[in-house]
From TrEMBL:
One of its GO terms (biological process) is 'de novo' IMP biosynthetic process. NCBIfam families: FGAM_synth_I, PRK01175.1. Part of the FGAM synthase complex composed of 1 PurL, 1 PurQ and 2 PurS subunits. PANTHER family: PHOSPHORIBOSYLFORMYLGLYCINAMIDINE SYNTHASE. This is Phosphoribosylformylglycinamidine synthase subunit PurQ. The gene is purQ.
Length: 271
């Protein structure tokens, strides 16, 4: 199947261009698509789009709708109001969806993550809250790949430590009060935890290594099917080895972020 990937945007998203470039570098046809192109009567016919035009979706980083109400809340509400059934069908048909930073926040607000069921939850089951530092955190971060094989985006990482930059003010994973252990156990049992923050030695650690205070050092999770991934760090910003110094394992001069997009493309081609 041809990898045709839509990078969704609305006012306030600001990482769509580098995300499109990352996908193209990995071998996909990719374009930035405004959400209104899926439903607005004000869009020219030549610019209208349908979800069925694509075999993958990426929700990029930024500050969609100014992050008013909560980060990702307005973007997700607009998506859910016009595309809920289409998105559920897209996921259930095994097509991949990737949410990066603000995109992770959108997927959580949308009810696509943690994605224990085969449909979008009616209300968010987890929250990406304000960082413990109460400020915007922007730096390289070390992540240990934790997934045992379910997540299609991270095949071949094999529990390596990768280096991706973070740039967010609301990235702390929070579960319902009093149910934290239940959620963590379920995510671990389902093989849904994909990345956890670690220090430069690969050990789990607190601030500044965990930049937001996220419970269990969670940096990224996938749904129960493994075809929806949300993560706070930015793999699209480290596509090349010259993006930073330490990526000795990465093949052919690629940076640590390359494998996320290459796996997405390869996965679609095999559908």
């Amino acid at each position: 199947m041809e990898p045709r990937i839509a990078v969704l945007r609305i006012e306030g998203t600001n990482c769509e261009d580098e995300t499109v470039k990352a996908l193209k570098a990995a071998g996909a046809f990719a374009e930035a698509v405004h959400l209104k192109q899926f439903y607005s009567d004000m869009i020219k016919e030549s610019e209208k789009r349908k979800i069925t035009d694509y075999t993958g979706i990426v929700i990029p980083g930024g500050f969609s709708a100014g992050d008013y109400v909560r980060a990702g809340a307005i973007f997700s509400a607009r998506m859910k109001s016009v595309l809920k059934r289409d998105l559920e069908e897209f996921i259930n048909n095994d097509f991949p969806i990737l949410g990066i930073c603000n995109g992770f926040q959108v997927l959580v607000e949308l009810g696509a993550l943690p994605g224990f069921e085969d449909k979008l939850s009616e209300k968010p089951e987890i929250v990406l809250a304000i960082n413990n530092s109460n400020r915007f955190e922007c730096r390289m971060s070390y992540l240990r790949h934790e997934n045992r094989g379910k997540c299609m985006f991270t095949k071949g990482l094999d529990n390596r430590v990768v280096v991706y930059p973070v740039a967010h003010a609301e990235g702390k994973v929070v579960f319902p009060k009093g149910m934290e252990g239940i959620y963590i156990d379920r995510l671990v049992e389902n093989d849904q935890i994909v990345f956890r923050y670690v220090d430069e030695n690969g050990d789990y650690a607190g601030y500044p290594w965990n930049p937001n205070g996220s419970i269990y050092n969670i940096a990224g999770i996938c749904n129960a099917k493994g075809n929806v991934l949300g993560l706070m760090p930015h793999p699209e910003r480290v596509m090349h080895e010259w993006s930073y110094l330490d990526c000795e394992w990465s093949p052919e001069g690629h940076g640590d972020g390359w494998i996320i997009f290459k796996n997405m493309v390869d996965y679609i081609e095999k559908l």
